[in-house]
Amino acid sequence: MRWPRSLTLRLALAAGFWVAAGLGAAAWFVTDVALRQVEAAFDARLAGLLDAAAAAVAADADGRVVVARAPTGADFERPFSGAYWQVAGPGGAPATSRSLWDQTLPTLPTGATAEVLLRDIPGPRGEPVRLAERDVVLPGAPEPAHLAVALSRAATLEEIGRLRTMLTAVFALLGTGLVLGVVGTVIAGLAPLRRVRRALAEVRDGRRERLAIEAPAEIAPLVAEVDALIAANRTTVQRARAHVGNLAHALKTPIAVLRNALDATSPDVALARSEAAALDRLVHHHLARARTAALAGAAAGASVAPYAIAEEVAAALRRLFAGRGLAITVGGDRAARVRVDPQDLTEMLGNLMENACKMARSRVDVSVASAGGRVAIAIADDGPGLPEAERDAVLARGVRLDERMPGSGLGLGITTDLAALHGGGLEFGERPGGGLVAILRLPQVPGAEPV
Amino acid sequence: MRVLIVEDHAPLAAQLRDALAEAGFVTDLAADGEEALFLGETEPYDVVVLDLGLPRLDGLTVLKRWRSAGRAMPVLILTARDAWSEKVAGLNAGADDYLAKPFVMPELVARLQALVRRAHGLVSPEIALGRLVVDTAAQRVLLGGVPVRLTGLEYRLLAYLALHAGQVVSKTELTEHLYAQDFDRDSNTLEVMVGRLRRKLGDGLIETLRGQGYRLATA
Questions:
Q1: Which ranges carry the HAMP domain (chain A) (predicted)?
Q2: Could you tell me if B81 lies within 8 Å of chain A, comparing CB atoms?
Q3: Same domain for A337 and A373?
């Protein structure tokens, strides 16, 4: 069975199920107890009448059973009233109450039972009656006499029916009340959520700045988080707007110059070319900024093994530098993972390893090592290296490792930005035997050390 | 050298076609992925310039299908997407080089020529065969240190033979690599051209193997 989508309906269904089960059991129990009481009272009355009948009979001098004083009561006198008695002695027809008229009760033969025996049987008119019978030994009589008393159950059955109807009605009413109570509670309990939803819709429509709702303790944190999200969103939009403004200004000016240079009667090709180059630089710069800025919110959460990424980049670089016969190796800790977006790590390693390939004479070696909660990825080449004094300058954006080498020069800048964004850093060292080592340090994902 | 240019932006495709034709390439154009896939699978190209963002079938898929079909021609990816993850994906899908837009034409030409050389196991742009030197970068031919004046088609014929020096090159192969796909191919033109080359370079350099093709002596 699939649960309905409505929370109220779910809770009402669950509550309804338990209320029905609980009240059903209680109703059965209560009805059972009440019916037993009614039946027991009826049987007690029947036993009393049987005792009265026993007291009414006696044995005469010949030992025959006679009814000395007939049991009294109008009901025994009125024919087919529903109250009957019958006494059967040894020999002869049994004596009966007037109410039995010409009928007799279907009693057991004398001697069948000395104890009181109770049975439900059809009465003289077919009505349900309860029969109590027993044998009595009368003083002076040679054989026991058989006594029987019967009472109509019609009134009792009617009473039981009334009791059942009443109890069912009471319990049904109680159950309905309980379920309605639960539904009401749920609806009332969810009211703050509906208020939040309405307020959120208003925020979306621009009719409200933020939620700022007085909410119960369970929902207050949600309201606060949503408000924080709205605020962060707004800041991002404002920043984006400012950035777009700057970008438009930065790009449109060179485009205007470019157009004018081309529209002139004698187009200024040199100017157009230098403006196009300026545009290229600007686009590069702003795209790189946009890329790192876009990641600022999404930096957390991802984790990746630098070894695997380095291998992928190495495979790509082997194709790219296929003509140079470079040996590109990856080694070290295969299992270590860093908390960095895979695309960002590819970007960092791509830039660093490509630089290494450009500088290298014959080989580039990448090694991954983890220590002290950080993973260090060392990229070593056997190229000319870099004097210590120049290393800081190179790390700054826009400075190329070597002006003679092709490349935009932004690669290292992006790499340092990304490393910082992910809580890491980049530094340069000297390779033993000559060459440069770039070491990228990034925060390790805990619990991922090799076993 | 025959190059397939796969680029859906018509003005850039035209610029590429003109620049590569000027650099001595025979050019075919494909403006969408499906056309590129078909041409690359059926025509023998010496090198391919492949844009990644293509209509109908993206460039990376085209490249992967070529490679799985056993097409091994060098491919240079030309794209505006210059993130390293894209570069790695392109190169590991079988590309041989990657150039990000915007680019300058001379760099593209130089890289394509380097790819063609690399495919033939050559490192230097100059192919030296005894007294004959074919400079594929400058599209120049020197015979004993003296420049030889050749037409564009003559140069392309000689350069192709030089890249396959010592090997027999059939007329069909030559036609396929020297003319664009829609060119009316006539083998007589080829014979006339070889004759003219022989006159300019002297007998003995280009050998005719009857029924098989031509061969340029290695020394």
A1: 187-238
A2: no
A3: yes
Q: The complex's ipTM?
A: 0.76
Shortest Cα distance from A432 to chain B (angstroms)? 29
Q: State which residue of chain A sits closest to B124, comparing Cα positions.
A: A323
- Of A315, A322, A346, which is closest to B84 when you measure between CB atoms? A346
Q: How many domains does chain A fold into?
A: 3
Residue ending a domain, choose from B119, B145, B177: B119
Containing structural domain, residue A247: 232-295
Give percent above pLDDT 70 in chain A.
90
Asked if residues A382 and A359 have their Cβ atoms less than 8 Å apart, the reply is no
Are residues B44 and B78 located together in one domain of the fold? yes
Taking all residues of chain A, what is their mean pLDDT, rounded to a whole number?
82
Output the CA–CA distances (angstroms, integers) from residue B168 to A332, B44, B187, in the order listed.
49, 17, 16
Residues B95 and B136 in one domain: no
Kind plus residue range of the DSSP H or E element containing B196 = helix B187-201
CB contact, 8 Å: B97 with chain A? yes
Q: Are B79 and B100 in contact (CB under 8 A)?
A: yes
Choosing from B119, B147, B174, the residue where a domain stops is: B119
A53 & A119 share domain: yes
Domain of residue B131 covers 126-216
Give how far B21 is from chain A: nearest CA, Å.
23
Question: A interface mutation test: which of B60, B73, B84, B113 has the most A CBs within 10 A?
Answer: B84
Q: Name the one residue in this structure whose structure tokens are 């090592």.
A: A369
Contact B92 A291 (CB under 8 A): no
Q: What is the pLDDT of residues B53-104, one digit of tens each?
A: 888 899 999 999 999 999 999 999 998 877 888 889 999 999 999 998 878 8
The minimum CA-CA distance between B118 and chain A, rounded to whole Å, is 6
- CATH number of A390's domain: 3.30.565.10
Residues with Cβ within 8 Å of A93's Cβ and at least 6 positions away in sequence, in order, are: none
A316, B102: Cβ pair inside 8 Å? no
- Whether chain B has a CB inside 8 Å of the CB on A274: the answer is no
